[in-house]
Structures
1.
Amino acid sequence: MLELQDLSVLRGECPVVDGVTAQVGPGELIGLIGPNGAGKTTLMRGALGLIAHRGASSLAARDPVARAKLAAWLPQAREIAWGLSVAELVALGRLPHGRDQNTVGAAAVEEALRRMGLESYRERTATHLSGGEQARVLIARALAQQSPLILADEPIAGLDPAAQIATMEVFAAHAQAGGAVVTSLHDLGLAARHCTRLWVMDRGRLVADGKPEEVLTEQLLAEVFHIRAHFKITPEGPVFQPLSTLGL
Ligand SMILES: Nc1ncnc2c1ncn2[C@@H]1O[C@H](COP(=O)(O)OP(=O)(O)OP(=O)(O)O)[C@@H](O)[C@H]1O
């Protein structure tokens, strides 16, 4: 669904994404983790062909409409400028499909509203919602696009715990239905619990790529995140708790 080959993004002379080679296949929910400034956003924007890059991304070569049909992009910035109703805003996710304001488009919007628990918000003015509510609306807009791949930049930041878990479950369901999701996030507990695979970025490089229990080693947590943490596989799944910083 996505193939990156030696992808780099330069800012001036400095590579902020440095030679990333990776693939995403159906069924995967990939957590893109790493410290602030590691290059997570830049990697996703380069992969989508939204910024100049070197190397190759299977998505970036396509025209914008073809790209949008293959991949939904949920940026970190969440500004909603227009006073549209929630349903109208979510329906904007259908734009890559052209004039499909028919039963297929309407059903996709309804399904996206339902998945994000927004049915009762349908007629509310989107700009009048709280920050977390607006974030859920924008996730619903990405879901309504019905693209097999979703790239999401910190989509659960600022959501309450129930909404965070529910969103990760929505992404997991999207993957289990044959799609794939790459989502950046800073909550390593949710990443460990819900993601099938983690990509760890550090100073522009992809330094680890594997299952959470393979990746979140004591050594990696110390070297990349500068933390000590408790990580255990329990009958209820992986439980990860950061304990202390080793200094910034
Ligand atoms: N337009 C730009 N011009 C110059 N440098 C940039 C630009 N955009 C990003 N950078 C730099 O590139 C590096 C990677 O930024 P990026 O936003 O990809 O990090 P991130 O891993 O997503 O961080 P965070 O977790 O804080 O969101 C940072 O050092 C940042 O300062």
2.
Amino acid sequence: MTQEKPTIIYTLTDEAPMLATHAFLPVIRTFADAADINVATSDISVAARILAEFPERLTDEQKVTDNLAELGRLTQDPDTNIIKLPNISASVPQLHAAIKELQGKGYDIPDFPDNPKTEEEQAIRTRYTKCLGSAVNPVLREGNSDRRAPKAVKEYARKHPHSMGKWSMASRTHVAHMREGDFYHGEKSMTVKGDRKVRMELLTAAGETVVLKPEVSLTDGDVIDSMFMSKTALIEFYEEQMEDAYKTGVMFSLHVKATMMRVSHPIVFGHAVRTFYKEAFAKHGELFDELGVNVNNGLSDLYAKIETLPASKREEIVDDLHKCHEHRPELAMVDSARGISNFHSPSDVIVDASMPAMIRAGGKMYGADGRPKDTKAVNPESTFSRIYQEMVNFCKTNGAFDPTTMGTVPNVGLMAQKAEEYGSHDKTFEVPAAGVANITDNATGEVLLTQDVEEGDIWRLCIVKDAPIRDWVKLAVTRSRESGMPVVFWLDPYRPHENELIAKVHTYLKDHDTDGLDIQIMSQVRAIRYTMERLIRGLDTISATGNILRDYLTDLFPILELGTSAKMLSIVPLMAGGGLYETGAGGSAPKHVKQLIEENHLRWDSLGEFLALAVSLEDLGRKTDNAKALILAKTLDSATGKLLENNKGPSRNTGELDNRGSQFYLAMYWAQALAEQTEDADLAAKFAPLAATLAAQESAIVEELNKVQGDQVDIGGYYAPDAEKLAAVMRPSAIFNEALSSVQG
Ligand SMILES: NC(=O)C1=CN([C@@H]2O[C@H](COP(=O)(O)OP(=O)(O)OC[C@H]3O[C@@H](n4cnc5c(N)ncnc54)[C@H](OP(=O)(O)O)[C@@H]3O)[C@@H](O)[C@H]2O)C=CC1
Ligand SMILES: O=C(O)CCC(=O)C(=O)O
Ligand SMILES: [Mg+2]
């Protein structure tokens, strides 16, 4: 990636956003070219990341460079400007599927060793592990986050409210979380003095010393936490909750984030599955071990592994699993038509999206009969799940939120440099034996933090560096000043980690002029209560939160306010001076791909991209004194406003305007805005013909785009589709394509 010209790096990712990119890139390039801006692409799809791990097994033509590492380096360059689309954070079943697809395409990559037995297999697994879970975002997020609903988007939602389920006082839905033995209760925290190197070690009850992590570098002022979750307490909690749901006849659902918390949450998930089916596991446990069954990867792993057994044995196991259901509660379903439950795969139900979807639906999830039902929403970690219970209570008392009148809750998130729990994966361990878990200074042997742990507990070290905390406070003050909104720091003085942060927030607030600003610090439950009380009165409140709440709140409030987090502006001012522009705050909507393949309709909304691109152009224009780029940014924003005003977002229904149609309208409005502006006559002249052609051909183009819908399409793969087939599917309007290329030429 050479950068002679000012460059915007556009990431190529997976699933629905990647499909949309294939239609949108030619549009972007047509416009960017007019300001002499280069739009480079960087493929960081899970398929590309897998291939980049095994260059020695690929032919020269097949080799893929490690784009993610390169982008990671570029985050340290002040000129960097990256547009980052959502990508798959792969679960083990997804990794298997991607590997299989690539092998089928002639890439000689190895199988993923589920249970590595040799050193070679272990080495392969270690390489693949780099592609598991949330492997992209933490590398690129070298800044804190500023996520908000732009004014035009909020106004659109007020005028065209999405549907909201009804909440009733009689709803039996509630959130269940651990009350002891989880990370909240087993946490110790401190602010580090001086630079030091520490290790994580376990002194077992049997007198052995097991070094789990030999070296972690810490710098002066870092806040570190040693925290653990008790396996015994977790299993008891599940047992109680399953029993309670069964006795009271309420559905059971489990909400974790196994994709992001890629070490701890698969374990938390696996214990739920084993507890639910405990009789079947007691009976067949040994056989499951021999087969290498690992339900941390979901029940799908068990079903896949028992495939190799003789039919009679298989049936016996399936029968025994079914028998467990007789004395267990009904399970929430992911796909009731296909019998896929919440336990099938840990990446099917992801808490940041699943809890808001449930709350938006009036506290309902789908049961096995395809009907929406009240549910016991089990979120084992209490640290953050209490906010959901507070919101459930609030909705039961006040009814559903009203998108036509409610205020907005932007977020300033402490995210940079792998902040807090979201950076702890390489410092998270399933404790191999009971003992004392210590964070020990390598030079002096001083024990900084110590915990008593049991075998099977999950122990982790989380770090948040001082510079990001300082930057976070600054960003919160800046956003409050720019928006005129009050800021609440969601920090709980009773949680050791957050108590350390509170001290720093007080210190760093003194660096700023906060005169006239309303800045408060409240524990999570009080903060959400205060925010919701304001919200229903139409008042806006910025939430300044740590990394996990950043993730949760930027789905929660947008889904209630706007119907989706896809319409969020999601900016990451990189601490080194560059800009990372994320497109929306949600994921990659796998079910949208299914609809495209089956019916050639893509309901993915690229609004997040439109918003991100405008800010990216504006930033580039300012930094490189490129007046044309600034005009492109301004006109793109007005085109996006017009798109919303005229309701040209993608429809959910096949046969109606989809992603491609929406992009066409954006291009038309953008060209029109450029043709109409008077600041730059060249740009106006360049885009006037395109504006005229697109307007004249509007109905013909929309007709071309809509008439292809209804039938199956072949894009030549899921994880690594065929570029030509994709181009054909995503760019079906000859008139539109021709109009765009006439500008380029
Ligand atoms: N930044 C990132 O890279 C992120 C990546 N992910 C990854 O995405 C995948 C799916 O995650 P999941 O939690 O299911 O969340 P998604 O956000 O992909 O899906 C949840 C639902 O939100 C709606 N939605 C989200 N984005 C859009 C959009 N642009 N246009 C229209 N509707 C949208 C859709 O609902 P409906 O169709 O019913 O309207 C969708 O089914 C996982 O692999 C996850 O790890 C998740 C979050 C962020
Ligand atoms: O990286 C991921 O897996 C998800 C990130 C996410 O959900 C977010 O940042 O909102
Ligand atoms: Mg999220």
3.
Amino acid sequence: MSDFSVNQFLEMAGTPPLDIEICDVTLRDGEQMPGVVFKPEEKLEIARRLDEIGVEIIEAGFPVVSKSEKNAVRDICNLGLNAKISALSRSRQSDVDVAIDCGVDMVSVFIATSDLHLKYKLHMTCAEAIRCALETVEYAKEHGLIVRFSAEDATRTDFNTLKKLYKKAEEYHADYVSVADTVGIMNPRTMYYMISEIKKIVNIPICVHCHDDLGLALANTLAGAEAGAKQLHTTVNGIGERSGNTPLEELLVNLRLHYGIDRYDLSKLKSISSLVERYSGVPVAKNKAVVGDNAFAHESGIHVAAVLEEPRTYELYSPEMVGAERRIIIGKHTGAKALKYITKKMGYDLEKKDLCLLAEKVKTASEFKRPITCDELRRLILDLKIEFVYNGP
Ligand SMILES: CC(=O)SCCNC(=O)CCNC(=O)[C@H](O)C(C)(C)COP(=O)(O)OP(=O)(O)OC[C@H]1O[C@@H](n2cnc3c(N)ncnc32)[C@H](O)[C@@H]1OP(=O)(O)O
Ligand SMILES: O=C(O)CCC(=O)C(=O)O
């Protein structure tokens, strides 16, 4: 039996096959989340885990940020991972030099191209910014690097200017052009349109780097991929600037369920999520898709009764698929069937009428707005003052 239920509308709606790769930027954009600092050894461990999952590219950092950042990027390059290692670089030869020093395979040369950024941040004309970027792309290529050219704030940039710039970057032998939706302004329809149009202009692969300011980063990334974008950017748990980036775990599960891409090891998603949660100090919301504590937790009596017979009734995909576990919670919404299951596991054999009485007690006891622990449940069973068979420890 499959690990997940199939969406019958995929075939009806027509779903294109995707030709994609993942570039995970947890160690760079993820770390730009205010307050997040990964220790060098933590960066290495995250890189190893990303490699085990099978992401094709790891953006290991932005080496000019600090000495320890540079060392960490270098150490990651020396790990001998399967993934290609990339570093971020401003459109400056000196930034590329530091990346080369680290031994990276790839460099992401970026320049902001929107009027807002040119005027208020770079204090450059568009022509000056383009010159800087192209010279840097050329320099990085001359030094044997794979080069991604990224237009920062691409989605708020005059589209004709942007298309010309991407074409130029291709002429300067960039290996990829990147659409950075830096402030998350896009929606799936506009992203699909934008990527489709860029695809008509350039023959090199396109990257999409989406931010979640409107909660659409994942949807926009998928829309970009459907339009033909090759390289999809992610961060573990979606950490990153402001509202964060496209979450790796959500994207990979979508790629599996909706597009049949099964080369990534999804069973490591829960553990990398917990690791990054711990290292970053950014708690994962309980109700977060795929890796939240409640992703496979059930309290409602009707749900639990069904899940105990067949988990797929209320689980789209199995917890095992992503390395998580199913949990049955006891609380206000618990019914007799759930209690039968839980009490049996605790060693009790209670009659139906006693389970109903126990359910009432559980509902009263859980008015303090929290789940009931097994110890509390045991006390409630004793409170019933009934006869029962106990086979527990
Ligand atoms: C969309 C993104 O995520 S972009 C990446 C953002 N990440 C970071 O900023 C990482 C953390 N940053 C840092 O540690 C520091 O800002 C550093 C080391 C990068 C630079 O530090 P400083 O030299 O002190 O510069 P400062 O931060 O004050 O200003 C940024 C400088 O970069 C320049 N700059 C910004 N983007 C680019 C670019 N793509 N290409 C060239 N120059 C750029 C700015 O014009 C400014 O230049 P100036 O100092 O000559 O005025
Ligand atoms: O496109 C990229 O590779 C990075 C740009 C970026 O981090 C952003 O604009 O948010």
